[in-house]
Amino acid sequence: MRVIGFLLQKEFLQIFRNKGMLPIIFIMPFIQLVILSNAATFDVRNVPFNLQDLDRTSLSERLSEQFTGSGYFQLTGESSTSPQALDVLVGRNADLVLVIPEGFEKELMRGGSAQVQLIINAEDGFSAGVIQGYTNDIITAFNRDLIPQLPGSAVGAPRQTISVRSSAWYNPELVYIDYMVPGILVVLVTLVGLFLSGMNVVREKEIGTIDQINVTPMKRYQFITGKLLPFWIIGLGELTLGLIIARFAFHVPMLGSYWLIYLVAGIYMLVVLGMGLLISTLTESQQQAMFIAWFFMVIFTLMSGLFTAIESMPHWAQNMTMANPVRHFVDIMRRVMLKGSGIREIATPLAILTADAGLMLTLAVNRYRKVSD
Amino acid sequence: MSEPVIHTEQLTRKFGEFTAVDAISFSVGEGEVFGFLGANGAGKTTAMKMLTGLLLPTSGKAAVAGFDVFTETESIKKNIGYMSQRFSLYDDLTARENIRFFGGIYGLSSASIQEKSKALLSSLDLLPVADSRLSDLPLGWKQKLAFSVALLHEPKIVFLDEPTGGVDPMTRRRFWDMIYEAADRGVTVFVTTHYMDEAEYCDRVSIMVNGRIAALDTPTAMKDSFGVTTMDELFIRLVRPGAGEGI
């Protein structure tokens, strides 16, 4: 125990003396948290929209007003021919063109139905889907208001329709920040934990002090503990600061228990640190360690369900994400913070994380050798 | 020679096809200052790493302080001090902090660390800079400190890998005084060097050529048997390409 104490003391002295390291630990993550949480939103607003009204009647005007007044679309211009509309799309002056053909009002009043054309820029399939959803809503509402006034419908007795009213549970106003912040917190503690531990032992290799350590009777478990504990503490400290910012700056709800979050985070940090240490023992320079850590960080983040839903990934990719610790912790954070899930509800991902922690630490301890072969 | 504290028989280390250390056999007695000479790449550092339990030998036998280098590396480590080729204290810690750290991991009591730290800093005249980071100190001072730290836990044997590389002659002189003081207390000193004047200070020297020990004797006897007047001459004769074959 005493030996670990001396090692801890030394590590903390070195961490706090490293002028390059301190900002990485204490400032960078929070700048990222603030920027990413606000920027990473799936909301599509103020879509530039081009109108091609070939009918020019009061009804066609009413329809286009529904679009401009919805708050989702912003009229950036009008066109009168299809080639013109295409130019606008290609030039990215609009992501949506609404074409109201000539005779729109006449056909509606006579036959009870008419067609309009919507041209959506689908470069980004996700946004296109959202835009289509908005336009459907607007046209449905337009229909609903219009039907009683059309010939052939019984006055005062609107047609029987099934109306679907949806309400979102656990995030009723669909606030993206509430959804993003818990996940981004996970990425931040992962980043700090993986990089700091990944660089640490390999740094001692680079400057040559590792031999001086290996020639002492220090035990392997003492060395590993002394190397990991400081970053474990720093990681949980970062999480604490992050949770404070989430609570007071972003007003992200916390329906579950903080104890549970810390229990999971404590286990999760072992996975990350074990992995960093493994990288450190497998590499010969900080550069190599950095690139490997970066490789895993990118894959873990993109396959964590933080930005893209896991459900929309192909089947093989979904299976792969099961091995991704970031995915499980993001999942747990969201469930605990937004739904108030308890330990029983998160038992499966927690068990996976615990197994991961065991695996990573075993590998790291076994790879670290005091005597080289 | 008294009871050997280092003893090797046909000790060999290969890296793939390359044989870095080729069946070396020698013994070092207690309290001896043993010079381990050889050109760059002759296998000195590899041999030293095997004796300090940092590297497993490929074949042969060796015991250090009575412990086997294959199976009892951790027991060896309790009984030796080591100063590597590269400066190996922590540059971003102060002298006092380095002493406390290494004392601590060798299991010295806090009182003992305190006491030794004070004695050591004053004998090295480091008291005024005891709380500056080592990166601010000249190399010679740092090397003397590193040597003292290697002796902190009172090991039976101390291994020094080119301890005076890049150090001025005055400091080298002082460094060798410290080596003698340690040897007088019964510490066995196993030292590699490139300075032939330092070879003369050793009780016995061995000269490694291409992984083998080409000569081993006291400096005087060795010079006599080769009919040369200086160690410099002797060394150059031995390590010149092709020269090793005839011996």
TrEMBL record, chain A:
Q: What Gene Ontology molecular-function terms does this entry list?
A: ABC-type transporter activity
Which stretches make up the ABC transmembrane type-2 domain? 140-371
TM spans (from-to): 21-42, 176-196, 228-250, 256-279, 291-310, 346-365
**One Gene Ontology cellular component annotation held by this UniProt entry:** plasma membrane
Task: Tell me the first and last residues of the signal peptide.
Answer: none
Q: Where in the cell is it found?
A: Cell membrane
Q: What is this protein called?
A: ABC transporter permease
TrEMBL record, chain B:
Kindly give the InterPro entries that the UniProt entry links to this protein.
Answer: AAA+_ATPase, ABC_transporter-like_ATP-bd, P-loop_NTPase
Q: Which UniProt keywords apply?
A: ATP-binding, Nucleotide-binding
Stored PROSITE patterns: ABC_TRANSPORTER_2 (PS50893)
- One MF term in GO for this entry? ATP binding
- Among its keywords, does the record have Iron? no
Gene3D superfamilies reported for this sequence:
P-loop containing nucleotide triphosphate hydrolases
- Residues annotated as domain ABC transporter: 6-235
> What SUPFAM superfamilies is this protein classified in?
P-loop containing nucleoside triphosphate hydrolases
One Pfam family, please name it.
ABC_tran
What name appears for this protein in its UniProt entry? ABC transporter ATP-binding protein
Task: Show the taxonomic lineage.
Answer: Bacteria, Pseudomonadati, Chlorobiota, Chlorobiia, Chlorobiales
